[in-house]
Amino acid sequence: MLNEKLLEVISHEGVVAIASCSNSEAHLVNTWNSYVNATEDGRLLIPAAGMIKTQKNIEQNAKVKVTIGSKEVMGYRSMGTGFLIEGTAKFIKSGSEFDMMKEKFSFLNRVLVITVTSAKQTL
Asked: How far apart are the first and last CA of the chain?
């Protein structure tokens, strides 16, 4: 699910937008590409210190959409590309993945785990 181009985008800095929705109201939160960790089984692990509204939304509706891009990666026609990722999300507060992420990002108090169902290149 996570192709080479998407992994290349993750390896370059850029802004990530995470959209969640509950009660017919969308909410967006941002993070950085360098905070996104891809697992071998195609999930995304993202450190969370805030994301309170995002967590409340996910507790009611686990579906999320994520955009991620980098101007440093070749797109379809020129430099710069991005992806629209769809999936389901949950927050974790313990376990081996939480411990690994805490070692990398001491500021986190939870980890947002996104199970990717679709990843489409947009540029």
From this structure: 18
4-121 is classed CATH 1.10.530.10: no
> CA-CA distance, 33 to 51, in Å (whole number)?
16
Question: Among 12, 3, 111, 112, which residue's Cα sits nearest to residue 66?
Answer: 112
Amino acid at 50: G
Cβ neighbors of 53 (< 8 A, separation 6 or more) are 20, 27, 29
**Is pTM, for the whole model, over 0.85?**
yes
Q: Which residues in 63-83 are b (16+ Cβ under 10 Å) and which e?
A: ebbbbbbbeebebeeeebbbb
Res 44: pLDDT: 98
